[in-house]
């Protein structure tokens, strides 16, 4: 029997904890029980610190009993993405050479979440160095989709998304360069927000000038993701670009009225991407639902010309900077498609990189003008429904051959160089019962409004309440 606490929303659960209707120990034990029961099938949580979590939960209850101040995430259990540094807890990056690495410090967003009262339970699985949108590696193996255990959970925050959908935790952190929050959210029927760069400070890598990668929140609903985002967001001196102040609209409050909303619908991003018919059927139905709700929906796409080359150039350059010397010293160190991507970066010139940045500049300026006419862009969050977990990546979409591991990820990553907030919100299911997410993209800095719009959309499409029913024989049915 499933303890209903594991599917209680984060906002409601936080309220129950503060009012002492439930204890942090009780909440933790419910989630640990769910992990014990289902994680051997899903493989979402790859490092577990039960002793540390139980001690932290007992301390959380003591603080509340003593009337001490508590944070907005007080008592909520969370396992962190296995690329995020967690002091005293193993962080493997999904790679054999760091499988026993235990950092001395935590990343800033991790520390903010813990300071807000969350209970650290463990770590969630990732692809090797978070490269790719299918979560598998040589240390822990593949993370499986709780809606169908034969399918991918997406990635690179696939362990986080699967943990949310499976009831292992009510909130999850992730990161997104080419869709690593949006793709797994789509695959696992949860919400994943890629924030505007600067909303969550970039203090954890070696390069604050790198524009593509951001950390962000996940939740089973927009309100739950917003609760976590309210803690993660805010400036930091170590990131000179983190100039956005915490939004007074967080948590998001009431959903925004959809009537009169100006929406650009880009089902194939202006003909730039192939999309599975089953995915298109879901997002087209939701575009019609938004029209019926009073929104003005136009078939339109903002300028994405050059985005593909800009993204791939800057990504490859970053990979070569991070791992080029390691690959040269040991050609067998990385999986074959990550090694290919690193070598692509080694072949670039300084001119290539500056031109990619110039293209990104043009795209950002064009997006600013576009959002003077539209409030929102909607599109598929992923070009495919969850695919077989035994594949490395899809090789074709609707008959269109795909040459690299990046090709099927264009739906989210073509928006990345534009510097816009984007999220995936549950939109429906294919006839086979596989989740499909709707990607919603807003103007730069409109993250809080985007979450309110996602919350309003959830009223039209309440599929976020559809839980997976994981079955030991390997199939999860609705």
From TrEMBL:
Superkingdom per UniProt: Bacteria
Domain named Amidase: residues: 26-451
A Pfam family annotated for this UniProt entry: Amidase
SUPFAM superfamilies xref list: Amidase signature (AS) enzymes
InterPro entries per the UniProt record, alphabetical: Amidase (IPR000120), Amidase_CS (IPR020556), Amidase_dom (IPR023631), AS_sf (IPR036928)
Name of this protein: Amidase family protein
Organism this protein belongs to: Sinomonas terricola
Lineage: Bacteria, Bacillati, Actinomycetota, Actinomycetes, Micrococcales
């Amino acid at each position: 029997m499933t303890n209903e606490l594991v599917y209680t929303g984060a906002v409601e659960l936080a309220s129950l904890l503060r009012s002492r209707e439930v204890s942090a120990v009780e909440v933790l034990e419910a989630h640990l029980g769910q992990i014990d029961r289902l994680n051997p099938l899903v493989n979402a949580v790859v490092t577990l610190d039960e002793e540390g979590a139980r001690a932290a939960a007992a301390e959380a209850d003591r603080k509340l009993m003593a009337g001490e101040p508590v944070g907005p995430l007080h008592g909520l259990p969370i396992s962190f993405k296995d690329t995020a540094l967690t002091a005293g807890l193993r962080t493997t990056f999904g790679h054999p050479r760091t499988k026993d690495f235990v950092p001395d410090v935590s990343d800033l967003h991790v520390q903010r979440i813990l300071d807000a009262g969350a209970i650290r339970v463990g770590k969630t699985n990732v692809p090797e160095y978070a490269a790719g949108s299918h979560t598998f590696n040589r240390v822990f193996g593949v993370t499986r989709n709780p809606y169908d255990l034969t399918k991918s959970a997406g990635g690179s925050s696939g362990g986080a998304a699967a943990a949310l959908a499976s009831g292992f935790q009510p909130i999850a952190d992730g990161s997104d360069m080419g869709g690593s929050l949006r793709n797994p959210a789509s695959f696992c029927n949860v919400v994943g927000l890629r924030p505007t760069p600067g909303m969550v400070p970039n203090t954890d890598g070696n390069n604050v000038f790198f524009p593509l990668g951001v950390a962000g929140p996940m939740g089973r609903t927009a309100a739950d993701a917003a609760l976590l985002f309210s803690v993660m967001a805010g400036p930091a001196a170590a990131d000179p670009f983190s100039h956005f102040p915490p939004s007074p609209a967080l948590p998001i409050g009431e959903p925004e009225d959809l009537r009169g909303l100006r929406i650009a619908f880009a089902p194939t991003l202006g003909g730039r991407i192939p999309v599975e018919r089953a995915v298109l059927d879901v997002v087209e139905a939701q575009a019609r639902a938004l029209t019926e709700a009073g929104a003005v929906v136009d078939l339109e796409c903002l300028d994405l010309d050059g985005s593909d080359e800009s993204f791939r150039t800057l990504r490859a350059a970053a990979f070569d900077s991070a791992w080029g010397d390691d690959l040269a010293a040991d050609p067998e160190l990385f999986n074959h498609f990550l090694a290919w991507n690193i070598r692509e970066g080694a072949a670039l010139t300084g001119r290539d990189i500056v031109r990619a940045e110039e293209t990104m500049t043009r795209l950002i300026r064009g997006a600013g003008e576009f959002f003077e006419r539209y409030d929102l862009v909607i599109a598929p969050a992923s070009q495919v429904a969850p695919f077989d977990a035994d594949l490395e990546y899809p090789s074709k979409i609707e008959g269109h051959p795909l040459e690299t591991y990046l090709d099927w990820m264009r739906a989210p990553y073509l928006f990345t160089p534009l510097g816009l907030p984007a999220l995936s919100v549950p939109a429906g299911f294919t006839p086979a019962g596989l989740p499909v997410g709707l990607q919603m993209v807003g103007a730069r800095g409109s993250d809080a409004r985007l979450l309110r719009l996602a919350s309003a959309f959830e009223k039209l499409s309440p599929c976020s309440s559809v839980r997976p029913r994981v079955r030991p024989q390997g199939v999860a049915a609705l």
